[in-house]
Design a protein that fits this description.
Structural class: mainly alpha
Shape: globular
Oligomer: single chain
Number of helices: 20
Number of strands: 2
Low-confidence stretches: none
Helix content: over 70%
Distance between the termini: 27 Å
Strand content: under 5%
Length: about 500
């Protein structure tokens, strides 16, 4: 059975999704989703352990060898991303039980879990497949289910947000499939490993250059890189709390993984950064995103929207690491994939606890919550410290590597800008802390009490992970560093 773990990683959630939809009761559907998420998490851990000890895993679907058949290929980077996605899924699913029952109509709950598990399937499929057209197929599976999940939000504006995401997501997917089609026309192959060899042999080619451009724009739309981020703030703000926590911690991370896979594995470092000079496009956009989106976050009155703009800035950090095109910078970017999933997962789950009791995540509605919901607000403060990059938190680790990467290149202004943006994070996190701890509520509302343990425990699991991997970052830095060296072509 262990030989089939790569395909089981996708098949199990794919089969579980219709079972959730067929369930008559929401809690039965939740039980199926819970079992699925924890099973996929266990598989991801097994795959990461195998890759670390034995090297990359190749699995030929139906026994058809690549490039004729479809190959699932798992290396250190994809195994690491699998752990991120399934780990977040395993924590968010227990959290979903109470949160979803409060925010979504009972009749729609089984369908919610079906879409949730289907979204998980798509994200895992993108990560494990070694076939570029399969990437597009799984991307559409995850995207279509994400549109449905966002549209289930209580606020009617959730439908508008889902529609906006649908339009921009469809444009991005179209760009991606056009780029894939152009590569197929020129090489006759869809296998990633095969494409990397054929494209190198092809030499200078105008069609491949155009394909590179289409893929850059399409993937940038999916990962919400400034200025192609317009779908993200509304999607995060109006989606149900569980959906926001899950998508914020996984979807954009998988899109960044796609960028790494296409531009480092398929096109190669030399073509992407020496010939196409991708860093000259990504670096300015990343720096603009870090500064401007942090500034925009400061002036938001809705905390979920504030964290959404913060996410666009944090995506800028990941892209900054990639644009440095060095082992240290790339290590920082890959580390931030993991670290930001923990940070934003805990922050959005804390806001889900507030929504559960208060019914709003407006800053004004949080006056005095430090006393009424001490554990919830403590979780928010802890996540905020990690977002800022305070030492002993995961946020410090990845920012440290990014600063080192910038200094290696002699880019002192970039290092200074990373520090300045961290100070901006202090400002918008402090706005919430000030209201919650230093202002009194409009009156004693005895109905506002601490969130239930079913919400608090998963939230604090991520909070503790923020500190554990910030204090002992040996494992994450080793995996990210080895993945970075592999992408740069420094190890087999």
């Amino acid at each position: 059975m262990t030989a089939h773990l790569p395909v089981l990683q996708v098949i199990i959630p794919l089969l579980a999704a219709p079972l959730c939809a067929l369930a008559r009761r929401g809690r039965i559907a939740w039980g199926i989703a819970l079992a699925t998420s924890w099973t996929t998490f266990w598989i991801a851990i097994q795959l990461l352990a195998r890759v670390r000890s034995e090297g990359p895993i190749s699995y030929a679907l139906g026994g058809w060898a690549a490039p004729v058949g479809i190959e699932y290929r798992i290396d250190l980077l994809s195994a690491f991303v699998l752990v991120i996605v399934t780990g977040i899924g395993a924590v968010v699913t227990p959290y979903a039980l109470k949160s979803v029952e409060r925010e979504i109509e009972a009749a729609k709950i089984p369908l919610f879990y079906a879409a949730f598990v289907l979204c998980l399937t798509g994200l895992l499929g993108i990560t494990v497949t070694g076939d570029v057209f399969n990437v597009f197929v799984f991307l559409e599976i995850s995207s279509l289910s994400a549109y449905a999940l966002i549209g289930l939000g209580q606020d009617r504006r959730a439908l508008t947000a889902a529609f906006q995401y649908l339009i921009m997501g469809s444009i991005g997917a179209t760009f991606i499939v056009i780029g894939i089609g152009m590569m197929y026309v020129m090489t006759g192959s869809l296998n990633m490993a095969d494409l990397s060899v054929l494209l190198a042999e092809l030499g200078p080619n105008r069609t491949i250059v155009v394909a590179f451009g289409f893929l850059t724009v399409g993937i940038s739309l999916k990962l919400a890189l400034f200025p192609l981020h317009l779908w993200l703030p509304n999607a995060y703000t109006y989606a149900p709390s569980t959906v926001t926590a899950f998508i914020a911690a996984t979807a954009t991370k998988v899109a960044v993984y796609m960028l790494l896979r296409f531009f480092f594995t398929i096109f190669g470092v030399v073509f992407s950064f020496d010939v196409m000079q991708l860093d000259r496009v990504l670096l300015p956009l990343a720096l603009i995103a870090i500064v401007t989106m942090s500034l925009v976050a400061i002036f938001q009155t809705n905390v979920k929207r504030m964290l959404a703009y913060s996410s666009v800035a944090q995506i800028g950090y990941m892209i900054l690491g990639i644009s440095l095109a060095s082992v240290t910078g790339l290590t920082g970017g890959i580390l931030h994939l993991f670290n930001h999933a923990l940070i934003k997962g805990s922050l959005f789950m804390a806001m889900g606890c507030v929504m559960y009791r208060v019914g709003s995540v407006e800053i004004d509605a949080m006056r005095g919550l430090g006393k009424k919901m001490p554990w919830t607000m403590a979780a928010f403060v802890a996540g905020g410290l990690s977002l800022i990059g305070v030492p002993l938190t995961v946020g410090f680790i990845s920012k440290w590597y990014l600063i080192l990467g910038a200094l290696e290149r002699g880019w002192w202004p970039v290092a200074a800008l990373i520090l300045a943006a961290s100070l901006m994070a202090v400002v918008y996190i402090w706005r919430v802390v000030e209201v919650a701890y230093f202002q009194e509520g409009p009156g004693e509302d005895s109905s506002i009490v601490e969130a239930p343990l079913a919400l608090l425990i998963p939230t604090w699991v991520l909070v503790f992970a923020n500190f554990y991997f910030g204090i002992d970052a040996t494992f994450t830095t080793e995996v990210a560093g080895a993945a970075a060296r592999s992408l740069m072509g420094l190890v087999p």
